[in-house]
Design goal:
328 residues; alpha+beta; SH3 type barrels; 11 strands
Length: 328
Amino acid sequence: MVDRAQLSRPPLERMLKIHDILRRGTLVNCTRLCSELEVCRKTIVRDIGFMRDRLNLPIEFDPQIQSYRYTQPVTSFPTVQVSEGELVALLVARRALEQYRGTPFHRQLEVAFDKLAAGLKDRISFSPADELGSVSFKNIGLGKTDLTVFNALSLAVLKQLQVTFKYKKPGGKKPDKRTIQPYHLTHRENLWYLIGFDLERKALRTFALPRLDSVEVSTIEFTRPSTFTPEKFFSGAMGVLQGDGDHQVVIRFNAQSADRVKEREWHESQVMHELPGGRLELRLRLGALEEVETWILRWGTAAEVIQPLVLRERLRKVSESLHDMYKK
């Protein structure tokens, strides 16, 4: 025999039903609620007590009409309890979504934040639009990702299914077919990437999603190694290129740029030393030099590479090429 309690509605569903009845002004008491919700009187009393004391809903029992009622209008059921400060943080996060425009999650998160804010707007004493008018976010070069490609790869990562796709390297003439065991999806440097084991090359590879095409998810299962973690995989990367080297990079910044460097965390391995005259020395441990080379060039003459010598030589050649380019 099935326990009747197992067939009754979950607590939240019961309270939503009670809320709907009270919001419409329907006369209702414990007897009617017990019959309609198929629970005992004790359960109804407990639910109403929770709604009144924990959710701060204006419920009272009117002995003149022998019915529960709302003492003031209630437009929405407060399924989430937050303070004003927490709501401000929530709305700031909503504004922060703009920096992820063009990514697959943007629209879904936008809708979710709007629903949360709408459900709480009658519990605050200020206008979010006015309060957050001076808050904005901006990222340059947001990557574009096909939602169909993203959904297919996220399914393959979740269920550990082998995939095939065509991949075109930057500057390549035509795409190559790849067969991959997908390990992880990551959003780095404003772009989505897939980390996977390339079965033909017998090694882990990183693929930028905008360069993928013709994705097919197979039914072939694989087991992701327990030793793999994205933190470990990218530990030697300035951004995305992890490399297989072990480079101690030392960069010195002039006094005018030192404070700007100190304001951010550039890499997990960074160590900073203040030098005489307000200058700053930054040390990094990286597996590849391509990305840090590009990053150093952004600082112009404010940054000087001390080591490794191979990176210093590469930057010298780049500076000579730039000189020749602009001299013309």
